[in-house]
Amino acid sequence: MDISHKKRTLLKVILLGDSGVGKTSLMNQYVYRKFSQHYKATIGADFVTKELQVDDKLVTLQIWDTAGQERFNSLGAAFYRGADCCVLVYDVNAHKTFDTLNNWHDEFIKQADLNDHEAFPFVLLGNKVDVDGGNSRKVTEKKAREWCASRGNLPYFETSAKEGYNVEEAFLNVAKIASENE
Ligand code: GTP
Ligand code: MG
User: Fold this and answer.
1) Strand partners, 51
2) Is the reported ipTM for this assembly greater than 0.95?
3) From the CA of 158, how far away is ligand 1's center (Å)?
4) In three state form, how does the secondary structure of 32-72 look?
5) Residue 182 CA to ligand 1 centre (angstroms)
6) Collapsing DSSP states into helix, strand and coil, what is residue 179?
7) How many CB atoms lie within 10 A of CB 171?
8) What are the C-alpha distances in Å from 21 to residues 33, 99, 173, 180?
9) Angstrom distance (rounded) from CA 64 to CA 15
10) Cα of 56 vs its chain's centroid, Å
11) Where are the domains of the chain?
């Protein structure tokens, strides 16, 4: 199909979650199909772009990777304005990273100055499901889905940035719901 003449949509996507949950790794797996064991904390925020087709539309995802170490509001409200989707990430093996999801979610709503936060597309990713064959898991899928239900039925994906498991699927869903929100 020739889609070259079609309108391109730029979608701004923001990754949030505690330090070490795998935000940078998920982005690198999705965009470059690369994974590194080596942990290098993200400083500030930076984006990469990826083009993909959603139904008959060509979209450009502008994926903003943020630093889990920094206090949330250090990026400033201007950073969050114009976002089309917020991807919250936690580590299924670290309960604390699940407990802080409320803070990330609330802070995003506050900072992004959303007109209608109930309609705004959030997606939750439970990452590192590969670790120890699932034996060191601390947060059950059921618990995660309950949290999603309590926050307005957010879509939920369990992922492994290491193995590339469910990463494409998750970002395709992100692109879909972000473009519907446009
Ligand atoms: P900050 O930049 O500090 O906010 O952290 P981050 O969320 O970007 O985490 P990052 O992607 O840097 O990953 C942290 C560590 O976890 C790294 O050592 C990664 O190799 C590792 N890691 C990330 N995702 C996975 C995964 O799915 N499975 C496994 N086994 N390790 C992972
Ligand atoms: Mg990072």
Assistant:
1) 60
2) yes
3) 14
4) HCCCCCCCCCCCCEEEEEEEEEECCEEEEEEEEEECCCCCH
5) 30
6) helix
7) 26
8) 18, 13, 20, 28
9) 6
10) 23
11) 9-181
Instruction: With cut-offs at 50, 70 and 90, classify the pLDDT of residue 1.
Output: low
* 160 token code pair: 């492994």
The structure tokens 């609330």 sit at 106
CA distance 128 to 140: 13
Q: Is the CB of 125 under 6 A from ligand 1?
A: no
Nearest to 23 by CA among 75, 87, 77: 87
Positive/negative CA dihedral, 2, 63, 104, 127: positive
Encoding tokens for residue 98?
A: 């699940």
Instruction: Please provide the CATH number assigned to the domain covering 9-181.
Output: 3.40.50.300
User: Ligand 1 pocket, 20 CB below 6 A?
Assistant: yes
pLDDT of residue 103: 94
Give the Å distance between the CA of 40 and the centre of ligand 1: 9
Ligand 1: does its nearest atom lie under 6 Å from the Cβ of 45? no
Q: Cβ distance 51 to 59 under 8 Å? A: yes
Q: Which residues pair with 15 in a beta bridge?
A: 65, 87
Ligand 2 centre distance from Cα of residue 6 (Å): 34
Tell me what percent of the residues of the chain surpass a pLDDT of 70: 93
Give the amino acid at 122: F
For ligand 1, is residue 167 a contact (CB within 6 Å)? Answer: no
Global confidence as pTM: 0.95
